[in-house]
């Protein structure tokens, strides 16, 4: 039996909003091929993430990790800033 605690989901996305205190909204794009029409469909999912240092700004590429519920919407936290916006 493996330890489940060490297997938290991580995602990489772009910060689209930093208007709230210690919170950011991260957009994560995904694409898949439609089963019937064979067209590539692009979708974007937004996650609300906790940013304790209040360091991430709009346009930054960040890595977020799944965590315990912090508020009614926040279930993710910013682990690192992969790339700063220009």
Overview of this protein structure:
This protein has strands spanning 10-17, 23-33, 40-50, 61-66, 76-83. By secondary structure, it is mainly β. The protein contains no helices and five strands. Strand 1 (10-17) and strand 2 (23-33) form a beta hairpin. The model has no long low-confidence stretch (mean pLDDT 94). A five-stranded mixed beta barrel has the order 1-2-3-5-4. Helix content is 0%, strand content 51%. The radius of gyration is 15 Å and the shape is globular.
Number of strands: 5
What radius of gyration results from the CA coordinates? 15 Å
Uncertain regions: pLDDT < 50 for 5+ in a row? none
Q: In whole angstroms, how far apart are the ends?
A: 46 Å
Secondary structure layout plus pairing:
Blueprint: E1 10-17, E2 23-33, E3 40-50, E4 61-66, E5 76-83
Parallel strand pairs: 3-5
Antiparallel strand pairs: 1-2, 1-4, 2-3, 4-5
Please give a quick description of this structure:
0% of the residues lie in helices and 51% in strands.
Summary keywords:
single chain; 86 residues; mainly beta; 5 strands; globular
């Amino acid at each position: 039996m493996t330890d489940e605690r060490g297997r938290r989901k991580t995602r990489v996305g772009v910060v689209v909003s930093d208007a709230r205190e210690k919170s950011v909204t991260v957009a994560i794009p995904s694409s898949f091929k439609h089963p019937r029409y064979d067209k590539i469909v692009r979708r974007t999912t937004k996650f609300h993430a906790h940013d304790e240092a209040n360091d991430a700004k709009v346009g930054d590429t960040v890595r977020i990790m799944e965590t315990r519920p912090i508020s009614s919407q926040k279930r993710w936290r910013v682990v690192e800033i992969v790339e700063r916006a220009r």
